From TrEMBL:
<keyword id="KW-0472">Membrane</keyword>
<protein>
    <submittedName>
        <fullName>SLATT domain-containing protein</fullName>
    </submittedName>
</protein>
<feature type="transmembrane region" description="Helical">
    <location>
        <begin position="66"/>
        <end position="84"/>
    </location>
</feature>
<keyword id="KW-1133">Transmembrane helix</keyword>
<feature type="transmembrane region" description="Helical">
    <location>
        <begin position="41"/>
        <end position="60"/>
    </location>
</feature>
<keyword id="KW-0812">Transmembrane</keyword>
């Protein structure tokens, strides 16, 4: 398992509201990505442990209450994973962070006197494109997840 340190947030840019906006979004994506990754690993390990414990409990002929409790925990974790889907949240946040970060870095590499209206417009467009792509990916995933349900058209 790969353990990564959280990227420290960049210092705020009070004199550049567009950069501050971009850094705020970038920090949000990083926090969301890191939190979803932790939940993903926690639920995956919990499901593995609960599933294995159920088999062991049945194999050693543990009392029915113990086996049923462990099996119930395994089922609960499976439902928790389906409902909250931290894996998808992790992937979406990681993709968004990795798309926005280069745009922010390109902007920050510009000398202060070259950060004109055009450079700010390009950065704002990048922020908006990342946000739109994330929402679109989420909507596509939700529509795919409900394809077997009886939800009406347009309901996400």
């Amino acid at each position: 398992m790969l353990i990564r340190r959280r990227t420290p947030p960049a210092p705020p840019a009070p004199d550049d509201p567009v950069l501050a906006y971009a850094l705020t979004d970038l920090d949000w994506y990083a926090r969301t990505r890191d939190g979803a990754r932790r939940w993903h690993w926690t639920t995956e390990l919990g499901a593995l442990l609960a599933g294995a414990a159920t088999v062991v409990a049945a194999g050693i002929q543990a009392p029915a209450a113990v086996t049923a409790t462990v099996a119930g925990i395994a089922v609960f974790i499976g439902g928790f994973r389906q409902v909250f889907n931290h894996t998808e949240r992790y992937v979406l946040a990681a993709e968004s962070w990795s798309r926005l970060r280069p745009a922010v870095e390109r902007y920050r590499l510009l000398p202060e006197d070259e950060r004109d209206a055009e450079a700010r417009r390009v950065l704002v467009e990048a922020i908006e494109a990342v946000s739109a792509a994330e929402i679109q990916s989420w909507a596509i995933h939700r529509r795919g997840a409900r394809s077997g349900s009886d939800a009406g058209p347009g309901i996400v």
